UniProtKB/TrEMBL annotation:
The keyword Kinase does not apply. Keywords: DNA integration, DNA recombination, DNA-binding. PROSITE patterns: TYR_RECOMBINASE (PS51898). This is Tyrosine-type recombinase/integrase. Residues 196-397 form the Tyr recombinase domain. It comes from Vibrio ulleungensis.
Length: 406
């Protein structure tokens, strides 16, 4: 058949199928023309439509494509399978692997997928991001870990190794590689076995540290200061505080409806009403003014497309600077401005809250509920009372205790 004959069939508009030889057919169905190739694979007849139809694909090009399909079928290569493979997103490099892991797994199963994403982009990407997946060896993983350990960030080394293992396990699931280059490494090769911190501030520590914070307000901003005051007096987690909105507060009833982060097995995942002492309300009222109309208590200090409240690292870095720790690769660290006390972290303020509640004689089950910890065993199953009044008294006593030092 030639072009004139094909054009005549199209004008007629009837459903037809004409053979052009070599397994190639010209078909019109519902007034739509197409090229179809019939072939035999594993002893069974099958057919496939070519990706372009006449006249976008000429008779000569269609015959050439049909010949290739028929020859491949003779060698056991099914064109339908090959086409399905081509439809899948190509994942060759580690950067492409991470993006697939992030989109298909982290976003679906992680409460905070930005955390492993941050570890990849800050610690792994510059070493192996452009490499093909199969070219990554255990030596590359060791170099990543050693670089982190040499900067004395042992917990970061452990977390990076953990996420590297998970990411390359994802590659194995997708049959992109046959082994995990990070699998043989253990915490001994990274930061070592991590021990739970026991640091809690004494009242003298609180008085000294918060006095220096106020004096160095040009480094440790007022917002950071108030955030630390709230963490100390409420016992909440940092992530819960920095992500909260003003709509979560009822100042008339003095209640914060806190939505917990789902990251610790010891923490209840149910929302909890946290009672607010007069001192805490006064800090929140100041933050309300400083928020300048933002929906968030701690609005982002830089324009960000990711979220409208401050980064997870903001308070950590601010506190680390006060102890002379280098947190910005482009700047020299400040001198240690708190030389008289042992360094502490933002999370240590939560532990301090719990310790001070114990010093005040708060019953254990009340103190644990103040921190929204799960109560273990049968008591946790059957005792569903929220002890709001008891928690209110406990947190007011705590505020009264530390207020003179804040």
């Amino acid at each position: 058949m030639n072009n004139k004959q094909l054009d005549a069939l199209i004008r007629a508009g009837n459903d037809v199928r004409e053979a052009l030889g070599g397994g190639l057919y010209f078909r019109i169905a519902c007034k739509t023309p197409s090229w179809v190739v019939r072939y035999t694979i594993a002893g069974k007849r099958s057919q496939i439509a070519l990706p372009k139809a006449y006249p976008r694909m000429s008779i000569r090009d269609a015959k050439r494509a049909a010949l290739e399909i028929v020859e491949n079928a003779k060698q056991g290569i099914d064109p339908k399978s090959e086409r399905k493979k081509a439809e899948l997103a190509e994942i060759r490099t580690v950067d492409q692997l991470f993006e697939d892991w992030y989109q298909s797994y982290l976003l679906k199963h992680f409460k905070n997928p930005q955390i492993p994403a941050r570890y990849y982009r800050k610690e792994m990407k510059r070493h192996i991001g452009v490499m093909t997946i199969k070219d990554v060896t255990p030596q590359h993983i060791r170099r990543i870990v050693d670089d982190i350990v040499s900067s004395d960030r042992l917990s970061i080394a452990n977390k990076t190794l953990l996420y590297a293992k998970q990411m390359f396990n994802h590659a194995i699931k997708l049959n992109l590689t046959s082994y995990n280059p990070a699998q043989a490494f253990t915490p001994k090769d990274a930061g070592g076995s991590e021990r739970s911190r026991t640091r809690a501030l004494s009242l003298s520590d609180i008085e000294y540290a918060f006095k220096i914070f106020r004096e160095q307000h040009h480094i440790f901003t007022r917002d950071n200061y108030l955030a630390c005051c709230l963490l100390l007096c409420l016992g909440c987690r940092k992530g819960e505080l920095i992500s909260t909105r003003w709509e979560d507060f009822d100042f008339e009833e003095a209640i914060w409806s806190c939505i917990p982060n789902k990251r610790k097995s010891t923490q209840s995942t149910e929302p909890i009403d946290i009672p607010l002492s007069p001192q805490v309300i006064s800090w929140l009222e100041e933050l309300k003014v400083r928020a300048a109309g933002s929906d968030y208590v701690f609005p982002s200090r830089r324009q960000s497309k990711r979220r409208a409240y401050i980064s997870d690292d903001t308070l950590n870095h601010a506190l680390a600077k006060m102890f002379g720790t280098k947190v910005d690769g482009n700047k020299q660290p400040y001198p240690n401005m708190l030389p008289k006390i042992e360094p502490f972290t933002v999370h240590d303020l939560r532990r301090t809250c719990r310790s001070l509640l114990a010093e005040l004689g708060t019953p254990e089950h009340i103190a644990e509920r103040c921190l929204n910890h799960k109560v273990q065993g049968l008591v946790g199953i059957y005792d569903r009372h929220n002890y709001f009044n008891e928690r209110q008294e406990a947190l007011r006593n705590l505020s009264a205790l530390v207020a003179p030092f804040l």
